[in-house]
Amino acid sequence: MTALLEPTADGFLRGGEKHLVISGAIHYFRVHPEQWRDRLRRLVAMGCNTVETYVAWNLHQPDPETTTFTGIADLGRFLDIAGEEGLDAIVRPGPYICAEWENGGFPGWILRDRNLRLRVSDPDYLALVDAWFDMLIPVIASRQASRGGNVVMVQVENEYGSYGDDRQYLAHLRDGLRERGIDELLVTSDGPARMWLTGGTVEGALATVNFGSRTLQVLEMAERELPGQPQMCMEFWNGWFDHWGEEHHTRTGETAASELADMLDNGMSVNFYMAHGGTNFGMSAGANHHGTYGPTTTSYDYDAPIAENGRLTEKFRAFREVIAQHRQLPALEEHLAQLGLDAEPAALPAGEVTIDRTVALRGTERFTRSAEVHPKPPSFEDLGLERGLLRLSRKIEITRNDGEDGPSIAPLHLYDLHDRAWVYVDGIYAGAAGADAVLGAEADKQFPATVELAHLAERLLPEGGHRTVRVEILVENLGRINFGPSLGERKGILGGVWQIIRFLNHWEADPWPLEDMAEELAALASGAAAVEPGAEDDVTLPVLVQASFEASEQKDAFLDVSDAGHGVAYVNGFCVGRYWNVGPQQSLYVPAPVIREGRNEVLLLDLEKQPTRLALVEEHIFGGRTTGR
């Protein structure tokens, strides 16, 4: 079959006519399915003729026995809606996607095999990829333009030149796409210089480049390194993402639009990364590690032209003005009316969210039940736990030592901790360790992570001597690394728990898959005794907070959690995402389809603080300074 897009030395031909690809990235897995059409129409309103999306393997295969293409994982429906709205589609199926998404899209369960090597021609790894592609690629292939659909371009792997140089691996993926029915244009995407292109390109796939500035320099490089082909920026980084504990990123529409003009004026096709960033619902956000560990925030707004709630920004208008010089577009207000869109989506008014009751989670069955015993602390992957918390529990003997500096108890050392741990001794909070980089500290460079127990000596051993106590450790996965040499990182206390002269073995291990626990946690919160506001934190935390608000109609909302500590929020049983008072994000976007007319239930699991106030606000709250990029 003949591909709809034909690459020539003078640019793309679409159906035999000269064509600029003006595409925008919208990831179906970062948008509520009931809002897909709205967001795609906003892309059309900006002037795009194409939509691009990654495919998140871990969304579709949460465990080895489950494969789903329904709900938010209904890739086919997303592509079909895009086609109905007149958009071509670019699909980037990975298997690796980066995307600031947990584990770069790889399921955590494939890491159970400690000998597995990702993104190389390891037979065991390729067998997993092939089995996944056997299920995925037919969904894409059946929607190609050559078969009456709208998919015009499919990517081979993703930015491989930033990871490896195994051409045999890339060839295997390329051939696998063709064998499974992909006959439209194949592409690769890499950084804008020879050092990336030499590792990431493969014969039979058009090379594209990713960048955010210095367009004219990139075009000069591309003419030299990629001659005789259409040039395309597969990722035009017109904004940027945020890490917890860092600054909120912004970029003016004026500077970004100037780069876009240089691309389009010189015949370079483009894909906005992102056109609409969306939300890392649940605990799906990934992390980066460039010297220090940096987990990505729940908001993936990206300072994109179409904001997280669909608002059309100043950047949207600046981009549209540039695109209108290359495509005939109606006046914006006329275009929005044709598409049935409001530039500013409706939102619930600001107001207080009533905190109905707060309970100590440690007093519930979830914290006290027995669990399977493991000779050493298992990893999340050993237990099949993708995301959430892992509770480790066992009895240990502690001894009080009295010296010149006062009474003390030997600390616990957590070797190779990924990522953060909270320690409780006989029901008393002892302290937290790990992931200090997000707080701007350098303690993450210390090895091992240490939790001091000396401050508990008077309470646990007031008369000295020794005694047996129960220790619980909550370990949190803050996001598996999605880019670079640490890709494939496992979670948990991977090296073990040490005290004084030896490892402590035989731990009960109880997985908490928080994204799926809304109903259970709500029942626990309803059935346990409430605690008084301001009760002593070290004997109440973590807490479950039940709250509510009234809504007269179904509209978007922003939940203000600036008075909360660190945890996970649910609205009407939907896991909205992680929050953390280290910022910069201090509110959570709640999409309109999650809201009910009448009473709406809010549930927080907070590990660090008893929130005394929650509220609805009309737009996102970002703390700290902003920075341009």
Strand tally: 35
Largest sheet, in brief, is: 8 strands, parallel, barrel
Assign an overall shape: globular
Q: Structural class, judged by helices and strands?
A: alpha+beta
Mean pLDDT: 95
Catalogue the unreliable spans: 625-629
Protein name: Beta-galactosidase
Domain Glycoside hydrolase 35 catalytic: 12-324
Organism: Brachybacterium epidermidis
Keywords: Glycosidase, Hydrolase
Structural description of this entry:
- This protein has 629 residues and is α+β, with helices and mostly antiparallel strands.
- Helices cover 20% and strands 30% of the residues.
- The chain contains 14 helices and 35 strands.
- The strands form eight sheets. An eight-stranded parallel beta barrel has the order 4-5-6-7-8-9-10-12, surrounded by five helices. Strands 31-30-33-28-15-34-29-32 form an eight-stranded antiparallel β-sheet, with helices on one face.
- Helix 1 packs antiparallel against helix 10 and helix 8 runs parallel beside helix 9.
- The longest helix has 19 residues.
- It is globular.
- The chain starts with a strand and ends with a strand.
Features:
single chain, 629 residues, alpha+beta, eight-stranded parallel beta barrel, eight-stranded antiparallel β-sheet, 14 helices, globular, disordered C terminus, Beta-galactosidase, BetaGal1-like_ABD1, Glycoside_Hdrlase_35
Which helices and strands, and how do they pair?
Elements: E1 5-8, E2 11-14, E3 17-19, E4 22-26, H1 36-46, E5 50-54, H2 57-60, H3 75-84, E6 88-92, H4 123-141, E7 151-155, H5 167-179, E8 185-190, H6 194-200, E9 206-211, H7 215-225, E10 232-237, E11 248-250, H8 253-265, E12 269-276, E13 287-289, E14 293-295, H9 314-323, H10 332-339, E15 351-360, H11 365-368, E16 373-374, E17 389-399, E18 401-403, E19 406-408, E20 412-418, E21 420-425, E22 428-433, E23 449-451, H12 457-460, E24 466-476, E25 492-499, E26 502-504, E27 507-512, H13 518-527, H14 537-540, E28 543-551, E29 557-560, E30 566-571, E31 574-580, E32 587-590, E33 598-606, E34 614-617, E35 626-628
Parallel strand pairs: 4-5, 4-12, 5-6, 6-7, 7-8, 8-9, 9-10, 10-12, 11-35
Antiparallel strand pairs: 1-2, 2-3, 13-14, 15-28, 15-34, 16-27, 17-24, 17-27, 18-19, 20-23, 20-25, 21-22, 21-24, 25-26, 28-33, 29-32, 29-34, 30-31, 30-33
Helix pairs in contact: 1-10, 8-9
Domain Glycoside hydrolase 35 catalytic: 12-324
Keywords: Glycosidase, Hydrolase
Family: Belongs to the glycosyl hydrolase 35 family.
